[in-house]
């Protein structure tokens, strides 16, 4: 079978995307590859199709045992012979899979990295021809990265133990450092590199000033993504629990997920998110890697992520199906203060702290930019692009103002507290001084005697918080471990009038739109009334069918396929095969029922 024939027959797709065909041909001819492609780019086909086409079994190394089951189900549903081996299985189950492997009855076998080091597993692999090794989530070898897995380091032995078997390493992490670590640690120096564009044009990036984050999040979800599946990322377990509860109290089907929960509860939360429709999971960054759910419609951050790399991975989990999705974040002064303090207080060595500070600075630059967010993001990954038209700064360009004098007032307050009083205070007290507030703390410290007392009454407290935040973000101010403000080496230039400052005016967040009368999934919002009605019918059929078969709904059909069905209304099985995502096996399994829902003549 040719790769193209496999694409049509199993996956039901007409054409390869971008570099898929090149990568597949490269592997089919027995060569190694390193593939950098964004989430949703279509990495899985790059090793699945060569494994189907080449003789022998493709061995897939994947770090997440909990997700292997669904990955294998998704393949079986399209008629690919796949199985997995991991510690969640009984000995009998494992034995059965081993038999299938020895008899050459598997196209793909998923294994966890730690198992490959085991002698019996290596002997098993030797007992039957291997088509290829695919190392998924290959950035897990990177010790400096955000998902380091020690077991990945030993995968270098694949090259020594099976020198003739082609290997492909895949990741959605795009930095040059990660790439070179993958190449050196996995002994892939000879491998051809395939680097795709990391743009995800269907994701709309938005960063909003934080004032009442819970309400902001709620109105974002209610007005734009009612009934949609989404992920909300928060930094601490405690805030994960609080946000999840708050959303539930407001009629959103939300579950919490963090490392403090026991594994059974975590598994339940993940299953609910994968299997039911429209579930919102509130999680720490422990959640998400390897989650293949294609119809996540939004990813929200209620705390500032620690690096652009992490942020891009997390937001990339939205809209893998290519349909419109939103990456939304609230961010404010407290985030900057907390993270600067966290770095200061961390036990890490100096080199690591510097790296953390660099990562944070890049993240802050993204938050404070007045230019296109996407241009900023992609340039972080070394990619040039033009204004995208699908981010908040493109859609409503933020205005800026000359903040030089305001900055001088604030910096000189910090300066005077230090020089005249040998004192350092947090943002709150500093702003109270500027506004000339007569609080007890002001009276006790005689701060009303300072020459900067009350000189900032021309702008509001909110404005002062925005000024402080932007000075912190630009490293013109810094905080100590108590959250008190200090000048930096760069402050002098502003104080002495040698440097002008343009500051961003934070747009006021939109008032919540009224809830639509009937909450409808956002993916179908642009369809005609008739088509949307059919889309909803197909969706409820899919829900039932997924329950009956005990698989996640997206394994039956993706939203993208349902949309095509609703708009094209195929009349017979011939026309059904022209729909993207319907291959031979799905036609056989679901064709009749789908035609029935559509009300076609031929049933
Ligand atoms: P990744 O692993 O890179 O995040 P996936 O392999 O999960 O991406 O693919 C993302 C989505 O795109 C899946 O729903 C997949 O079926 C779909 N897809 C992949 N390749 C194609 C293609 N050539 N044509 C249409 N859809 C595709
Ligand atoms: Zn833009």
Describe this structure as you would to a colleague.
This protein has 603 residues and is an alpha/beta fold. It folds into 4 domains: 3-195, P-loop containing nucleotide triphosphate hydrolases (Rossmann fold), CATH 3.40.50.300; 203-395, 3-Layer(aba) Sandwich (Rossmann fold), CATH 3.40.50; 400-504, Winged helix-like DNA-binding domain superfamily/Winged helix DNA-binding domain (Arc Repressor Mutant, subunit A), CATH 1.10.10.10; 526-598, HRDC domain (DNA polymerase, domain 1), CATH 1.10.150.80. Helix content is 46%, strand content 13%. The protein is built from 28 helices and 17 strands. Helix 14 (308-315) links the parallel strand 12 and strand 13. Helix 2 (20-28) runs parallel beside helix 3, helix 19 (404-421) crosses helix 20 (427-435) and helix 24 (529-549) crosses helix 26. It is globular and about 85 Å long. Adenosine-5'-diphosphate (ADP) binds at residues 13, 16-17, 20, 37, 39-45, 292, 294, 320-321, 558, 580.
State the CATH class of the largest domain. Answer: Alpha Beta
In round numbers, the mean pLDDT is 92
Q: Span between N and C termini?
A: 30 Å
Total discrete domains: 4
Q: Structural class, from secondary structure content?
A: alpha/beta
Low-confidence runs: 511-519
CATH topology heading of the largest domain:
Rossmann fold
Largest sheet: 7 strands, parallel
Rg to the nearest angstrom?
27 Å
């Amino acid at each position: 079978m040719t790769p193209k024939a496999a694409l049509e027959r199993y996956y039901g797709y007409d054409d390869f995307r971008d570099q898929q065909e090149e990568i597949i041909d490269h592997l089919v001819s027995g060569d190694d590859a390193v593939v950098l492609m964004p989430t949703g780019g279509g990495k899985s086909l790059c090793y699945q199709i060569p494994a189907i086409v080449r003789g022998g079994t493709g061995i897939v190394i994947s770090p997440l045992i909990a997700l292997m089951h669904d990955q294998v189900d998704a393949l079986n549903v399209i008629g690919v012979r796949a199985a997995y081996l991991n510690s969640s299985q009984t000995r009998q189950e494992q034995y059965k899979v081993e038999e299938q492997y020895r008899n050459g009855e598997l196209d793909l076998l998923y294994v966890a990295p730690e198992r490959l080091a085991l002698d019996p597993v290596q002997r098993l692999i030797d007992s039957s021809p291997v088509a290829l090794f695919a190392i998924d989530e290959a950035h897990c070898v990177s010790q400096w990265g955000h998902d380091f897995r020690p077991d990945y380091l030993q995968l270098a032995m694949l090259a020594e133990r099976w020198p003739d078997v082609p290997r492909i390493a895949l990741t959605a992490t795009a930095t040059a450092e990660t790439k070179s670590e993958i190449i050196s640690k996995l002994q892939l120096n000879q491998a051809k590199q395939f680097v795709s564009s990391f743009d995800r044009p269907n994701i709309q990036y938005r960063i909003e000033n934080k004032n009442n984050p819970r309400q902001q999040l709620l109105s974002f979800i209610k007005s734009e993504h009612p009934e949609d599946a989404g992920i909300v990322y928060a930094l601490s377990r405690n805030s994960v629990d609080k946000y999840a509860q708050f959303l539930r109290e407001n009629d959103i089907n939300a579950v919490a997920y963090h490392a403090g929960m026991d594994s059974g509860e975590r598994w339940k939360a993940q299953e609910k998110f994968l299997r039911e429709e429209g579930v919102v999971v509130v999680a720490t960054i422990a959640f998400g890697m390897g989650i293949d759910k294609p119809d996540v419609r939004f990813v929200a951050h209620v705390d500032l992520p620690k690096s652009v790399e992490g942020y891009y991975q997390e937001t990339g989990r939205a809209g893998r199906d290519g349909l419109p999705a939103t990456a939304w974040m609230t961010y404010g002064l407290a985030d900057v203060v907390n993270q600067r303090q966290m770095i200061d207080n961390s036990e890490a060595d100096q080199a690591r702290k510097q790296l953390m500070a660099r990562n944070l600075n890049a993240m802050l630059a993204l938050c404070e930019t007045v230019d296109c967010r996407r241009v900023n993001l992609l340039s972080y990954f070394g990619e040039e692009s033009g204004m995208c038209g699908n981010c908040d700064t493109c859609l409503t360009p933020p205005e800026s103002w000359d903040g030089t004098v305001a900055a001088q007032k604030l910096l000189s307050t910090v300066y005077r507290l230090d020089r005249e009083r040998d004192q350092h205070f947090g943002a709150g007290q500093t702003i109270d001084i500027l506004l000339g507030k007569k609080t007890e703390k002001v009276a006790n410290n005689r701060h009303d005697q300072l020459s900067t007392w009350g000189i900032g009454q021309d702008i509001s407290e909110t404005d002062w918080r925005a000024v402080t935040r932007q000075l912190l973000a630009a490293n013109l101010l810094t905080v100590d471990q108590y959250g008190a403000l200090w000048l930096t080496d760069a402050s002098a230039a502003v104080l002495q009038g040698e440097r002008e400052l343009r500051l961003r005016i934070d747009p006021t967040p939109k008032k919540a739109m009224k809830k639509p009368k009937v909450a409808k999934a956002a993916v179908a919002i642009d369809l005609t009334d008739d088509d949307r009605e059919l889309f909803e019918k197909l969706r409820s059929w899919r829900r039932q069918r997924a329950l009956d078969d005990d698989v996640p709904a997206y394994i039956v059909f993706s939203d993208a396929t349902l949309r095509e069905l609703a708009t094209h209304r195929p009349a017979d099985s011939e026309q059904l095969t022209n729909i993207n995502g319907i291959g031979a096996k799905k036609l056989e399994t679901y064709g009749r029922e789908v035609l029935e829902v559509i009300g076609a003549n031929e049933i």
